[in-house]
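Need Flagellar biosynthetic protein FliQ's 3D structure for a figure. Predict it.
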Amino acid sequence: MTDTMVVELALQAMTISAKLAAPVLLTALGVGFVISLFQSVTQIQEATLSFVPKAIAIGVALLLTGNWMLREMLTFTTQLYEKIPQLLA
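Structure prediction for Flagellar biosynthetic protein FliQ:
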């Protein structure tokens, strides 16, 4: 296993991690921004107000993108297992 292979494998792992985390993080960011804007406009400073909408939105995002996330992870894992002979040589 060469240094190039290790760096390539680490880069692929970080890329797939970012791709899988993006839908949930962007959903939480968007909903948090909208709730924060609503709170600043109405001057309602309730800390728990943002929790329930974020939880619901993240649940919906996971329902909508879960199948894609599973396929991406399955593809990455399959490719990783196929590379094992090359990595050990």
